[in-house]
Every structure is written in structure tokens, then in C-alpha cells.
Design goal:
Blueprint: H1 9-15, H2 18-24, E1 32-34, E2 37-40, E3 53-56, E4 61-64, E5 71-72, H3 74-82, H4 86-96, E6 99-100, H5 101-104, E7 132-133, H6 159-163, H7 168-173
Parallel strand pairs: 6-7
Antiparallel strand pairs: 1-2, 2-3, 3-4, 4-5
Helix pairs in contact: 3-4
Length: about 180
């Protein structure tokens, strides 16, 4: 696990696909591939309709059109399946798919390198695959710029805020609510 609790969600989402995640859960064989989509029963609410849950392979997102009425990316899916936060889901994905969390926090830009020929073990078999490196996200060395708008009249019990585990103090600090009810 990473030395710090920082996780680059964008890099984790880019490193794994919904197909890999469904395969991890042993569910991929329940889905039918049709063009750019995977269709099947919803694994979240344990549905049976073979068209209620859809995955866009190119966009790497999912949606349940039945009871759940939810959708999202790979981390949202893992979070729902594991009944965990997005952060916990990212940490699980890093572990399950042998991703290298240290590559996420690389501060110096990495040059594009040609992949080396993998040496073979003494018995002629290729060595075990090394952990996948996550592509570092190129960001400016400046702090985030303030938003040019405010989320006003948003209730502190709003599902978006609650799902992400934001505290009342954080919500007030960022000005996401104008009036706090007792």
C-alpha cells in the first residue's frame, strides 16, 4: 500500500477497465458483448434482467437501468460492490490489479521508453509480470484555482456530499451550503 493516503483516482481509473473488474468479481461470463457495450444483470442489486446493467467499453463507465438507478466509473462500481468509499475502492483496485501507487506520485516527468525485451527464467518461461505502472498525471505545480461559482442552496444531507463522506465542517468551509440547519 502507498506510504501516504493520497491516491490519484484518475490514474487508477485509467489503469483498469470495467471488464477487468467484472472478471475480478467472476461476473464477466454473465455479460453479453454487443459492439461497444456489455449487457447483463445488475451485480449490485443482484438483478436477473439481462439488459438492466450496461457497460460502455470505450468510455469505461457503467449504468444500472433498473432498481439501482446508479452508474459511474470503475471506482464507483467497486465502491458500490464493496459498500466502501471511493478512496477505499481505489486502494482495493491498486491491490487487486497489482498497480504501482508510487508511480502515481512521481514528481519528475518520465520519458517515453521502449519496452525492454523481458528476460526469461532458466526454465524458458517468461518471468511473472511486474506490477503495472500507473501513468502519472501531469499537473501544474500551482495550487488549485478557486471555483468561479458556488453551489448554493445545497442541503448538507445531499446524497453527493454524504456518499463522499464529507464532514459538515468541510462543507461549510468550502461554502457548499448557505444555511446550515440545526
Amino acid at each position: 500500500m502507498p506510504k501516504s493516503s493520497f491516491v490519484d483516482f484518475r490514474a487508477v481509473k485509467a489503469a483498469i477497465t470495467m471488464e477487468k473488474v467484472l472478471e475480478h468479481y467472476g461476473l464477466l461470463d454473465r455479460f453479453k458483448k454487443s459492439g461497444d457495450s456489455l449487457n447483463g444483470p445488475c451485480p449490485i442489486h443482484k438483478g436477473s434482467n439481462p439488459t438492466q446493467f450496461r457497460v460502455s467499453i470505450s468510455k469505461n463507465i457503467w449504468n444500472c437501468f433498473s432498481e439501482c438507478k446508479h452508474g459511474g466509473n470503475v471506482l464507483d462500481f467497486i465502491a458500490r460492490m464493496e459498500n466502501a468509499s471511493i478512496h477505499a475502492a481505489a486502494l482495493k483496485a491498486i491491490e487487486w490489479f497489482s498497480l504501482d501507487p508510487e508511480a502515481m506520485s512521481a514528481e519528475k516527468p518520465q520519458e517515453d521508453k521502449e519496452p525492454d525485451q523481458a528476460p526469461k527464467d532458466g526454465d524458458g518461461a517468461p518471468p511473472k509480470p511486474a506490477p503495472q505502472k500507473l501513468a502519472p498525471v501531469q499537473e501544474k505545480n500551482t495550487p488549485n484555482q478557486p471555483l468561479k461559482f458556488r453551489l448554493e442552496k445545497l442541503e448538507r444531507e445531499h446524497a453527493y456530499l454524504m456518499e463522499r463522506g464529507l464532514t459538515l465542517e468541510t462543507i461549510i468551509s468550502f461554502g457548499w451550503v448557505t444555511a446550515v440547519r440545526a
